[in-house]
Amino acid sequence: MSVEATSDQSFTRTEMMIVAAARELAGQHVCFVGVGLPNIAVNLAKRTIAPDLELVYEAGVFGARPARLPLSIGDPTIVTGATAVTSMFELFAFYLQGGLIDVGFLGAAQIDRFGNINTTVIGGYLHPKTRLPGSGGACEIAINARQVFVIMRQGARSFVERIDFRTSPGNLGGAEQSERIRREEGWLGRGPSVVVTDLGIYHFDEHGEMRLDSLHPGATLDEVRATMGWEVRIAEALGTTPAPTAEELWLIREELDPEGAYTK
Amino acid sequence: MSGKVASMRDAIAELVRDGDTVAIEGFTHLISFAAGHEIIRQRKRDLVLARMTPDVIYDQMIAAGTARKLVFSWLGNPGVGGLHAIRRVTEGSEASLELEEYSHFGMVARYTAGAANLPFFPLRSYFETDLPVANPLIREIESPYGDGKVYAVPPLKPDVTIVHAQRASANGDAQVWGLLGCQKEAAFAAERVVVVVEELVDESIIRADPNRTIIPGLIVDAVVVEPWGAHPSYVQGRYDRDNRFYRDWDPISRDVEATEAWLREWVHDLGGRAGYVEKLGQDRLASLTPASAPSGVVDYGAYR
Asked: At residue A139, does pLDDT exceed 60?
């Protein structure tokens, strides 16, 4: 694991990724929290930049106030002290499909340049090389949440020209097609708006394609290119992501993930 | 109290039959591992196992050879990784377990259609994805009111649904607090229902708090009293999720012999849940017991 040194703090790339993802939630109100890395990023945001964020868990909780960061997203700590516990039907039908979710925060195994996501299989469907978990709630979150945020580590096998299976739709074949289909079919979701990785932050340009807008401290464009299956677009005014603050690092290490379940 | 109260052995022997579609529901919370282990012990075969999140219990049941097919929406060991016994029979050219997969909302909608006696349930999901290709039972339909397309999923009506609850009366009126998952829908959709509880209570306890009843005895065939019966999953207010177990299962389940040895030691060689709980030991149980956080008391009022 690489450790970047700053004047008085060192941090890992995973920590930088979590911090950068949390900061993207500034100004957002209702967030549907996905399994894995989204869980720690959203909980960090709630403790820092977005204290009024309402956490929604697919297990059937609105307004969760987890006192600890759970290993699973169905942990009892998301219940105690929450605003409401609902059946899963109510959660998906009324809260998500009813249009109350501002941000769906997802992880992914494979993603393409337009933000289409695969979490189902690597290889063919019937005899896959690797069987992945499948949709869970991701498919309907991608369609019904107003925006989708993605957090995942970069790699040549995960950032690919063609995903092996489309589990959750992003900008489909590009912005024009995506906007047309979303309008014609009445989707509530506008699609993916940000992808945060261990190397940088991507937003989607006017073509609906991922564009590198900020490089994390210590990461290089060579590393970015070596871990993407297509010729990546890079912003003219490419920024550098501000390093994690001491407070953000303390929250991750001492409060949210003291055992390193997410950050190892 | 007697009513529908039965031993786990009798309930499973009588109500779960080879070839059945069996749903052991409970989303992370209240997963009846005790019932799953009894199904393994009784060597049931050719089951169609339905569950939103197969979890470690279905990994164990599939490792033990009880199932021919899996119906699901998210296949993993939450926070840990894959379910390796299931991966062994679903990957590569040797894949032998039949899969029928949906999204979470799709599975919930299937149980809802089953419970409500509907031919399908419509939802705004699956657009522009490969899921309807992988599973042709997910079908696009036109709104009869001329306002666009939605997707339909068929009803799921298990032969048997098994749920774990904090408490029930001998008649099977079951009360749950904490995550509710889709147990109510799965129970109402089923032909037969087994309720496993931490505690059997008098009917007056149920009637004092009717808002908490998710399943009425009307649809319940057997009530099994099995404290700690959901371990290593959890019961809100009673015991915590045993995350150590979920982590420990990963290396065990990667190895066929270790998996078989575990099933022998923790399932076949034990007569039932009481033996399992004793084997876990007091220290482990104590480490999983939470501090108290009671709800306020509500007043229903007496209207005469």
From this structure: yes
